[in-house]
Specification:
mainly alpha
Amino acid sequence: MTERDDTSSLELKELQEDKVRDEARAAREADQPAEARTHARRADKAAYLADKLAEADAADREGGTSEE
């Protein structure tokens, strides 16, 4: 297994956080309810991934690994 790159984890987390903002904005601006739901689901998924990346980063900093 390869060694994790902490910078890469942080960058991925930031990208997901950007996506949360973008998708939430798109959901607010959507013309159709179905379109709004789609963007809201994408924002939720990006938020979930950002949280998981933050947890993995915290675990790595504490000296453990988060392999489930």
